[in-house]
Amino acid sequence: MSLQYVQNDRGETTAVLIPIEEWKRIKSKHPDIAEENMVLPEWQKNLIDSRLLEIENNPERLKSVEELLKEIDN
Question: What is the mean pLDDT of residues 28-56?
Answer without folding.
Answer: 85
